[in-house]
Amino acid sequence: MDLQDVGQAVQMAGIVAFAVTAVLAVAPQNVSLFTACVMGIITAVGGGTMRDVIVGVPVFWAADQAYIWVATGASFIAFWTHKLLTSRAIFRLMLYLDGFGAALFTVQATAKVWNLGFGVPVAPVILGIVTAIGGGLVRDVLAGRPTLLMNQEFYAVPVLIGSTLFVVLMTLFPGAETLCAMVCISVTFALRAAAIHWGLGFPDWLTTRTPPKGRA
Amino acid sequence: MDLQDVGQAVQMAGIVAFAVTAVLAVAPQNVSLFTACVMGIITAVGGGTMRDVIVGVPVFWAADQAYIWVATGASFIAFWTHKLLTSRAIFRLMLYLDGFGAALFTVQATAKVWNLGFGVPVAPVILGIVTAIGGGLVRDVLAGRPTLLMNQEFYAVPVLIGSTLFVVLMTLFPGAETLCAMVCISVTFALRAAAIHWGLGFPDWLTTRTPPKGRA
Amino acid sequence: MDLQDVGQAVQMAGIVAFAVTAVLAVAPQNVSLFTACVMGIITAVGGGTMRDVIVGVPVFWAADQAYIWVATGASFIAFWTHKLLTSRAIFRLMLYLDGFGAALFTVQATAKVWNLGFGVPVAPVILGIVTAIGGGLVRDVLAGRPTLLMNQEFYAVPVLIGSTLFVVLMTLFPGAETLCAMVCISVTFALRAAAIHWGLGFPDWLTTRTPPKGRA
């Protein structure tokens, strides 16, 4: 089985989660319906677009335009309902869905680049991370928000662990792609869910928190 | 006739307008001659570069370097004359020229991607928008200015309408590319000109203006 | 001799310098170990990635993954030692090393694009600049810092002069690539070193410093 065949429904759930959380993220800054949809689409397909451009394969949404339609539809609905989506319960649900989307996209992207034999083993890991967080980074830059790289929350670290684990498992068990993928998606999502649930982030000693006291 | 053959003079007018308005946009932030030219070039050719990279064709300015020379020359002249260009009349003229450039680039880009058969019908529309506003977005991000996505002015919406209309017309009248293109450029420019003239923007009900009142 | 063969050690010194100065640049903003490494890698290989994507050749770090490992290692060490690296002497040394890296990458990139015959003579110059400053621009945007385009320091101008000089020399002396490259690296570095040593920047008359006084 090719990982690219993983159920459309599951993939589209990831697209929806990314688009909806994008609209919720920028809504407090007063954006138009147009901007909400642009931000939703960029967040949902931006990272995968960077991956495909760097690898040099046709961008995935040109071959299967359903990604764009689903992202647009989800953004559209999120725009009209965003005032309802801010209740704590729904906001939390969205965070978990977004984490699931990140887990799914990471492992799918790592598998895609791995199967292309592109820059193995480093490039699959890097492009797994790019796919999962690239769209969100562009969204935040365009919206003038601090990017997730500038806070200490565990968002990208589960992604790094998941893509690295996939490369390790595929090296050890080259015939078991589907199983490896399921394990890695589960691990990545579990780590992200734990980070959401317990508010995990980097401890001070793993940050540059104490400002440098040099004379420069 | 191939739309890519549309008069050089007209195309170059669009390049000039994009470069000049870019220099005028960043001039109040105190920039050097070098930065003014970089911003002018990025604004003029950045969107088309993204389009070509995503589609996977050679970037247009590598084949025809006149685009770079014209953008550089226009930026150079705009740098030395920007204090004269701030009179209301000239500034207005520049806005209209910029709107004309956006209309032209949108339809040209949509036509280019359409003729390549790339991701029809969604990709031509998306890449038409990317070509028209991509360079300006990069300029604003590099200059630390709010991007046009964060205000409610009608800039990108005429572009969206123009590229969508082109795809619709080409589907209905596949043999009439030149006529379709002229109609779409006219419509796009007329909408943008109306937005400039009457200061049109999104009404409140099409924005997230009322801040969310949820508990999150 | 192919310029791509220039001693690995020299190339890696440039990578190290870019990664270390990136970590030092973002450290005062309180970043995690993960973010420090991401910023180091992006700064070290981001510009070259843009160049390869625009030219349409495989990205250089997919073929030779040592670039990523060295950038990661250098960022890692810089993270743990950044409080020691702020003494004025070491900070200055890093600035010079960074200038050397910029000089090296500029000329290498210009030579690579020149030898591919891509958009000669304009594209080699533009992509030489993109390679030298592109990664740093992305780093600053992701970190929410003003980009180097918005100050008046001579950083990109030596790069422009070096890449232009290379194109001029290669046109005059097509057989002497190695010699031309050495001359251009030396000139670029000398100009940058002079800018660091004497704090050179654009004089007021080459900036838009006086705010426009028009009526607009």
Can you offer a commentary on this structure?
The structure is a homotrimer of 216-residue chains. Chain A is mostly helical and 216 residues long. Chain A has one domain (3-201). Chain A contains 8 helices and no strands. The first copy, chain A, has helices spanning 8-26, 33-55, 60-63, 66-81, 88-115, 122-143, 156-172, 177-198. In chain A, 50% of the residues are buried. The mean pLDDT of chain A is 91. Chains in contact: A-B, A-C, B-C.
- Overall shape of chain A: it is globular
Largest interface: A-B, 38 and 31 residues
Question: Low-confidence spans of chain A: pLDDT under 50, at least 5 residues?
Answer: none
DSSP strand (E) fraction of chain A?
under 5%
Tell me the number of strands of chain A.
0
| Mean of pLDDT of chain A | 91
Please outline the major beta sheet of chain A.
none
Q: What sequence of helices (H) and strands (E) makes up the elements of chain A?
A: HHHHHHHH
Structural class of chain A: mainly alpha
